[in-house]
Write a structure and sequence with these properties.
With 400 residues, the chain is of the alpha/beta class. It has two domains: 234 residues, Response regulator (Rossmann fold), CATH 3.40.50.2300; 126 residues, Response regulator (Rossmann fold). Helices cover 40% and strands 17% of the residues. A seven-stranded mixed β-sheet has the order 1-15-11-10-9-7-8, covered by helices on one side. A three-stranded parallel β-sheet has the order 3-2-4, with helices on both faces. Strands 12-13-14 form a three-stranded antiparallel β-sheet, covered by helices on one side. The relative contact order is 0.22.
Length: 400
């Protein structure tokens, strides 16, 4: 169970573009929040050069469905499929259903390129891109060649949305999380440590922004790093930071779990603070860690929220997935699908065989013009950079 903690942010941070989102909690009312721009009418009747034989609208995606980071990919897939199930049960888009075609690329950028080609050849018309940043950048670069719109649920590196005018995201951006972490930790702690993965785009992107902000604040900290060849033994890094009050972990949950266990063995009682990549860390640790170290992280999604749309989503997810609770990445996938659906409905899409480039151009212009959507991860507004603005919260992991 997780306990949501209030987080007061400066307006500029609240408007920053942070990683993960949700849908409308089973409510297919597509009324946009006040201030949303009205998309211009587009003629979707012509098929153009598209040779697909679709009977449903096909949403493509790739992600790590196996391997070390499979938790992320499976969660996104589950959330996306739940949204599609709800949309189809409510009549789809003017009677036409949606389908998700998701390929496993284990978070590998090269495999993501290959998977993109397969998806396109199999009739993909729009996409929720890839789950992790390296793969998503590769996917977006390929998609740009075909003008395919992608709305990644969870790939937060700045390079992902910079790769293409057609690439957008639901989640927070890496630099924003780094700035937020620097501001918060500087206010609350004196002895600050950092452990980051210098071989990973996600981790390095957050760390670089954190470093820059700490320099602006004049706050000192101790830095430790690791790379892809050393992701199992963190005793050296923890020993170097053993006397810190807090250790910032801009990394993924698998390594964070190992670091938390190393803290226990080394007698390091520092609080552990991370970003959205730590969602899922509870499954990597036990009560002995939480009795020893406080663990918390930045996220846009609180599974214990009492907001109606969030509660509906959580209940529906538990019902479909054997009582499992959705994490932030499941909420990401859910919101990504619903955002695309709402945008397509607002645009008046009425042709199941609409060409990907025609649909892509229309969605790109709509999202770039300030499209808004309220999902289970908050009220989202997009801009021409592909970024999504939404308010973050901080969640603390607890043993119960």
């Amino acid at each position: 169970m997780k306990k949501a903690l209030s987080l007061m942010l400066a307006a500029v941070l609240v408007l920053c573009c942070f990683a993960a989102c949700g849908g409308n909690g089973g409510n297919t009312d597509t009324t946009a929040p006040a201030g949303n721009t009205t998309p211009e009418a587009v003629d979707f009747s012509a098929e153009g050069d598209y040779t697909g034989n679709n009977t449903k609208y096909v949403i493509g995606a790739t992600g790590p469905l196996t391997g070390d980071f499979s938790s992320y990919g499976i969660s996104v897939q589950n959330g996306a499929n739940l949204a599609i199930k709800e949309i189809n049960a409510a009549g789809g888009l003017d009677g036409v259903e949606f389908v998700l075609n998701m390929k496993d690329e284990q978070g590998d950028p090269t495999k993501a390129q290959t998977a993109y080609t397969q998806l396109y050849e199999e009739g993909m018309q729009v996409s929720i891109g890839s789950v992790t940043s390296g793969a998503a950048e590769s996917f977006a670069t390929e998609a740009a060649n075909d003008s395919v719109f992608s709305l990644t649920p969870s790939a937060s590196a700045a390079t992902v949305i910079a790769a293409s005018d057609y690439s957008f995201r639901v989640c927070f951006g890496d630099p924003d999380q780094g700035v937020l972490a620097a501001d918060k930790l500087s206010e609350e702690y004196k002895n600050i440590g950092v452990i980051y993965d210098n071989s990973d785009t996600y981790s390095s992107g957050i760390y670089d922004a954190f470093k820059t902000e700490m320099e602006k604040l004049g706050t000192k900290y101790i830095e430790q790093s690791f790379d892809k060849e050393n992701k199992r033994d963190f005793s050296t890094q923890v020993e170097a930071l053993r006397d810190c009050d807090v250790i910032f972990l801009p990394i993924y949950y698998a390594e964070a779990g190992l670091i938390a266990k190393a803290c226990v063995s080394k007698g390091c009682t520092a609080a552990l603070f991370g970003c959205d990549g730590l969602d899922g860390v509870k499954d990597q640790i036990d009560a002995s860690v939480l009795d020893h170290n406080k663990v918390s992280y930045i996220t846009p999604f609180d599974v214990n929220s009492t907001e109606e749309n969030v509660a509906k989503f959580v209940a529906a997810y538990k019902a479909d997935y054997d009582g499992a609770l959705p994490d932030q990445f499941a909420a990401d996938g859910y919101d990504a699908v619903y955002a695309i659906y709402n945008a397509m409905k607002a645009l008046g899409v009425n042709n199941v065989k609409v060409a990907p480039d025609t649909l892509g151009a229309a969605l790109k212009d709509t999202f770039a013009a300030g499209f808004q959507y309220k999902g289970v991860t908050g009220e989202m507004t997009w801009d021409a950079t592909g970024a999504c603005a939404k308010p973050p919260i901080i969640v603390e992991v607890t043993a119960d």
